[in-house]
Amino acid sequence: MASATKLDIEKVYRDHGYMVLRRARQILSDDDEAREALQDIFVNLASRPEQFAGASSIATFLYRVTTNHCLNRLRNHRRRARLVERAKINGTWTSQPEATVDARDALRRLPEKLARVAVYYYIDEMTQDEIADLLGCSRKAIRKRLAHLHREVDSWAS
């Protein structure tokens, strides 16, 4: 595994850039936004290579960083006025356009830890064990976050 100081950014980009772009497109649903996210992520990595500590593979690191970056972009956007209407997520995320708009709006409203778990669990269809491994926490912590997520979303309907 490469250390932070020996990280060849150009090679990492060639090897994993498409994965980062694909992941950004999944979350942002906008090609231009996804390309900007790709650029932001690699510029940030080039300027601060020490953020990759080598505790996981570079692919796992980039997957996590991309997810976090895209969730932050969604949260920080000022496009709420263009959203159709908010709807409660019933625990099922679909590829229907209306549901996608509602899901992105919900991700903006959720605290970061819950939004991350929601993406991994509902969109990526990862198991609780897989999420726990990716986030470096216990399966019990993931169960608690999912329960908190459902309570949070249920409270929006009230």
Q: What key attributes describe this structure?
A:
disordered N terminus, 2 domains, 68% helix, Rna Polymerase Sigma Factor, Chain: A, single chain, 158 residues, 7 helices
Structural summary, described in words:
The structure is a single chain. With 158 residues, the protein is mainly alpha-helical. It folds into two domains: 1-77, RNA polymerase sigma factor, region 2, helix turn helix motif (Rna Polymerase Sigma Factor, Chain: A, Orthogonal Bundle), CATH 1.10.1740; 84-158, Winged helix-like DNA-binding domain superfamily/Winged helix DNA-binding domain (Arc Repressor Mutant, subunit A, Orthogonal Bundle), CATH 1.10.10.10. It has seven helices and no strands. The chain has helices at 9-28, 31-47, 58-76, 97-109, 112-123, 128-135, 139-157. Helix 2 (31-47) packs across helix 3 (58-76) and helix 3 (58-76) packs across helix 5. The longest helix has 20 residues, at 9-28. The radius of gyration is 16 Å and the shape is globular. The model is unreliable at 1-5 and 78-95 (pLDDT under 50).
